[in-house]
Amino acid sequence: MTWAKAPDLADRPAALARVREGTAADRDDYLRSGLCPVACGRCGVRVLAKKNSPQHTSIQWTAEGARRCATFAGRPAGEVAESCADVLASIDAAARDGLIETPPHDPDGDPRSL
To answer: How many other C-beta atoms can be found within 10 angstroms of the C-beta atom of residue 99?
Structure first.
């Protein structure tokens, strides 16, 4: 089996422009679309959150929020914290209260059956 590299489209500027526009739209959709502000119930830090499914949450932290987060600020130097349980709980509560939309899902986890 050989690996087929995607064409660079240098000889097709219109196609290249469409690909770049689509990539920018995908990036914008992934990073910004559907994000809602949520305040942490513990320390009040605000993040932008999106529920892609009941199990998948996207969170955009600001540098200020990461500095002020009680969980992140309370960790020893060098210890990595991947997330904050209090922020996750606040996001889940916002989703339960209908403040964040959660797309419909199949209880068996098969997105093709939606």
So the answer is: 13
Q: What's the pTM value of the predicted model, to 2 decimals?
A: 0.67
Taking the alpha carbons of 70, 72, 73, 77 in that order, is the dihedral positive or negative? positive
How far apart CA 75 and CA 55 sit, in angstroms, is 26
What is d(CA 52, CA 37) in angstroms, rounded to the nearest whole number? Answer: 15
pLDDT tens sequence for the chain (114 residues): 666 777 888 899 898 888 888 888 888 777 777 899 999 999 999 999 998 888 889 899 888 888 899 888 878 877 877 889 999 999 999 999 999 988 776 666 555 444
7: amino acid identity, one letter: P
